[in-house]
Amino acid sequence: xxxxxxxxxxxxDVLVIGNGMVGHHFAEKLRELSEQRSIHVLxxxxxxxxxxxxLSEFFSGKSAEDLALTTDANYQARNIxxxxxxxxxxINRDSxxxxxxSGAAYHYNKLVLATGSFPFVPPIPGNQxxxxxxxxTIDDLHAIKASAEVSKVGVVVGGGLLGLxxxxxxxxxxxxxxVVEFAPQLMAVQLDQDGGRVLRDKITSLGVTVHTEKxxxxxxxxxxxxxxxxxxxxxxxxxxxxxxxxxxxxxDALAKEFDLAIGERGGIIIDNHCLTSDANIYAIGECALxxxxxxxxVAPGYTMARAAADHIVNAEQATTTFTGADMSTKLKLMGVxxxxxxxxxAKQSNVQSYTYENQPEGIYKKIVVEPxxxxxxxxxxxxxxxxxxxxxxxxxxxxxLPEFPESLILPSVGDVAPALGADAxxxxxxxxxxxxxxxxxxxxxxxxxxxxxxxxKSCTKASSGCGGCAALLKNVVDHELEKxxxxxxxxxxxxxxxxxxxxxxxxxxxxxxxxxxxxxxxxKGLGCEVCKPVAASIFASLYNKFILNSEHVGLxxxxxxxxxxMQKDGTYSIVPRVAxxxxxxxxxxxxxxxxxxxxxxxxxxxxxxxxxxxxxxxQLPDIWQLLIDGGFETGHAYAKSLRTVKSCVGNTWCRYGVxxxxxxxxxxxxxxxxxxxxxxxxxxxxxxxxxxxxxxSKDIGVIATDNGWNLYVCGNGGMKPRHGxxxxxxxxxxxxxxxxxxxxSFYARTADRLQRTSMWMDNMEGGLTYLQDIIINDSLGIxxxxxxxxxxxxxxxxxxxxxxxxxxxxxKRFRQFVNSQAPDDNxxxxxxRNQLRxxxxxEKAKLTKQPGSAPSVIDIVELA
Amino acid sequence: MTNNSTEIEPQEEPIIRHFKWxxxxxxxDLVVNSGICALAPTQxxxxxxxxxxxxxxxxxxxQTYVVSNWDPIGKANVISRGIIGSIDEQxxxxxxxxxxxxxxxxxxxxxxxxxxxxxxxxxxxxxxLLVKLPTE
Lengths: 864, 136
Fold this sequence. Notes:
The structure holds two protein chains of two kinds.
Chain A: E1 9-17, H1 21-33, E2 39-42, H2 64-67, H3 72-77, E3 80-83, E4 88-92, E5 97-100, E6 105-113, E7 117-119, E8 132-134, H4 138-149, E9 153-157, H5 161-172, E10 176-180, H6 193-205, E11 209-211, E12 216-221, E13 227-231, E14 236-239, E15 241-244, E16 248-250, H7 253-257, E17 268-269, E18 281-283, E19 288-289, H8 298-314, E20 329-333, E21 336-342, E22 352-358, E23 363-369, E24 376-382, H9 388-397, E25 430-432, E26 437-438, H10 439-447, H11 453-460, H12 470-483, H13 500-509, H14 515-522, H15 531-542, H16 558-561, E27 565-566, E28 572-574, H17 585-597, E29 601-604, E30 610-615, H18 620-629, E31 642-647, H19 661-672, E32 681-686, E33 700-705, E34 708-713, E35 725-731, H20 733-750, H21 757-762, H22 767-777, H23 783-795, H24 800-806, H25 808-811, E36 829-832, E37 835-838, H26 841-849
Parallel strand pairs in A: 1-2, 1-6, 2-3, 6-18, 8-15, 9-10, 9-15, 10-11, 17-19, 31-32, 32-33
Antiparallel strand pairs in A: 4-5, 5-6, 7-16, 12-13, 13-14, 20-21, 21-24, 22-23, 23-24, 25-26, 27-28, 28-30, 29-30, 33-34, 34-35, 36-37
Chain B: E1 7-8, E2 19-26, E3 34-40, E4 48-56, E5 62-68, E6 70-71, E7 76-77, E8 83-87, E9 90-94, E10 101-103, E11 119-120, E12 122-125, E13 128-134
Antiparallel strand pairs in B: 1-2, 2-13, 3-4, 4-5, 5-11, 6-7, 8-9, 9-10, 12-13
C-alpha cells in the first residue's frame, strides 16, 4: 500500500470479528434490538455463516449453499455490512481501530470477538504431511473430499463427538475408516464407560474400526498405504489420509496479542455480559472463557450472543446474561443415537444411578438421581434417545421424578411408558435451547394467532437450530392447539383444506369424476402435483375410467401419463404383467426379442417379472404394440396400484406344498390388476408354511394351510419393513377373496396420500381388532358398499396400453417433439456388462465431441 | 400465414439480445392443462427444446406458457412432462424427476434460487403458436 496515501477508516458502531454461527446470530440479534446502529462483520472465510453442526451432511450430498445460514442479499437487506476473506491483523484498543491484512481499517465503538476455535493438531512428527487434514470449515471439507478421492483408507484421530462426525464423513466418502482415540473409550466427555463400550460395539458393527488407548508417536511413509502411524505401544496402522479431530482450542491469538485477559489454558475471559477486560470489547462463542470454562456447543454460544447484544443496546439495564449453560447433547452418529444429560458420569457426591442395557439391540440407558431420588441430575442414552426430551425436561426444570424413576428408561411392556406430557412442563421450560424458546413463548405465539407447527416455527425460530427438539415442539404445539379446540390439520396441500379421505367421500357422495368440478366446489387455485394425482387416484378407485382421457390426462404423474416409469435420463421402463410370475417360453422369447431389437437394458425384478429399461418416449407405442400382439398386457408398474402377486409353485410341483398357490396367485393378480389405490400394493401367496413367497412382507399375504388359507395383512418390505398381521386363519378361497375385496376397498377409501397399508394399519385407532371387526363382522355396515366398489373396478378393467394404442389422440402424447421426428439429443447410452446404460455427464461430453455423432438436424414440420 | 414464412419481423427491443417471433407448432398440438415438447430452430448442433403448457382459465380461454425443457436439477429434458399448478398466486410446473417447482412466468425455481428455466413469451395467431426467441 502506498504510504503517502491515507487509508480510509470506516466508521462502524459495532464491529464483529468472525462470522461463524455465533457471530452471525449476534449480528441478527443486535439488528433486531437496534434498527439504526451500524453493524459491520468481518469474516475470515470466503463465505458468510453456515451450519457447522451439520457439516458432515456435505458428504451425503448437501452443498455449501444448503448449509448456508444467510446470504449476501439477506445481510444487505438487514443493512449489515460485511467483508469476506478479512483477516484482522491489528487491534488498537486506545484509538479503537482494527485493520485487516488487505489494508482495510475500521473505527469502532464496540468490538465483538466471535473468532471461534481452531482444531487442535497434536504435535506428532509428520502431522504436516499433505494428506493430514482437519475438519472444521467448508474449505476443509473440499480438501477432505479431494484427498478421499485418491485414498482408500482414512483415519480420524480423536474419538470425541466431532471425531465420530468426521469418521462418518470419511465413511460416506467410501473409505475404509478407522478411529484412533487416546482415551480408553469413545466420547469420554459425554458418556460413561459402559455407554462408551456400547457405542463402540455399534460403530464397529457399522464397519468403522475403533482403536482406543493409542498414542501416535510418529507419522511416516507407509508400505501398503501412503502413511504409517506408529503408536507408543509399538503397534502401527497404515492409512492414506489422516484427519485430526482431537479437540478444539479457542482462537484467542488476537486478544492475547493486544493484551486482553486470557485464561491460563487459553480463552478470552468474559463476565456475565460477555465483556472482556476491555469495557468496549466483548467475546462470544468458543473463543470465550466464562468461569474457567469454554463452551463448545452452539446453544451456549447463541446465549452469549444474545447477552452481548443486550448489553450493547441496554448497558446496565440489560436483562439477558450468560450464566453458564447446560451441555446436554443429543445426536445421531452414523445412525447411532446418542444422548448425554447433565452429570452423565455421576461425579457429584452421593448421587445414585439406574441402568438398563439391552445387548442384542445395542441399547444402553442410565439415569443419575440425587440422593433423595426426587430429582434427575444426569443421563446417558446410547442406541435409543426417544426418552431424551422427557429426561432433559426433568433435569432442567427440576420436575419431581415419578415414584419409580427407573420406569423412565425401562422398555414399556404392555402399558405405555410414562412420557412427560406437554401439560406437565412448566411454562418456563426451555423447549428449544438453541434459540432459547420456552413453552410460554410457544403458547404466546399460538395465542397471537399462529395456527400450525410451521407458523409457530417461523415466528419463534424454535427447532430451527440443531433441530433436536422437533418432536417435543410438535407435541407442545399440537397439545396447545387441541386445548383450544383447533383441529390439527390434515390438509393434503394448499389447494384443498381436506384430507384424502375427506376428498374421497366428497367425490363419492356427489359423484364427482373430474378435477375441475372437485376444485371449483371444494378447493381453490389451480392445483398442484400433490392434489392432482390424489384426485386422479380417487376417480380411478371410484369410477375407473381411462386415465388418459382428456379431462384426466393433466392430473397424472408422468409415470401414469406415459404408462411407464421415468428414469433419471427421461427414458422409460417397460414392465408387462406376468401374473404370479408364470410365463411361457414363447412369451419369454418375445420379451427377449423386443429387448434385443430396441436395445433395452433387461433385468429381472423382485416381483417375479421382467423390466426393460431405456425406451425413449416415442418408442413406447411400437414396443407395446409388439408386446400386446404377443399376448402381454400392461403391468401397472408405473401406477400406485396392484403390482404383483408373488408366488411359489405350490402343491402342483413342490413336495411340501399343501395348496395350489400358483393358481390362487394368478387368480388374485387378475382380479385386482388395475386397482388404483393411495399407494402401490403387493401380494404374495405361499404354498406351505415354509413361506418361500415371503407373503408376510406384503400388503396382502396368503399362506397355505392343510385346511385352506391364512390371510396376513399390512406387511411391508421397503424403507421400514413390517411383518403382516395374521388377519384370519383357514379361510376357503371364496371367503379369502371376499375379505380381500373389502380390505382393499376400505384402504382405498380411508388411507392418506402415499400411505402404504403398513402405516395405514399403524395409524388406525383400534388397529387390527378394529379392522377385523369391520371386515369380518361388518361393524360399520359398509361391507356391501365396499364389495360393490371393488366390483366396479374389476368390471371396468382395461389394459391401458391397449386403449392408448387404439386411440389416436392418446397415441399422439407419445412424441418427443410435436414438430419433429428427432430423438432427444441428451439421451445417450454406453455399454456395460454387454448391455446399454445411460451415459454419465463426462461420457456424454466425450460422445458429443466425436465427429459424426452430432445430434440429428431439426426438421420442423411444415405448418398448415 | 403461409407455408414458407415462419418468421415475423422482430418487435422493437431496447438492448443486447435480439428476438424473433418464430412459429413453433400448431395450436391443435397443445394439450389443455398439460404440457408438450417442441424443438426450436438453432444454429448450433445442440437441440433447443421447449416445454409448452396450456392452462385453462375459463370455459373459452386458456393461457399458453413456454419455458426451456431442460431440468437444471434433474439434468434431463423432461420439464414438459411435469404437472402444472399453482403455489399461492403463482403458476408453476413441478419437475417430474425431483418435484421442484418452476414459475411458468419467469422460470425461477421456487425451492432453489440458483436454478431457473428460460421463459419465453408466446402467442397464438391463426392456429399457430409463435414464440419470441433470442436470435444469435
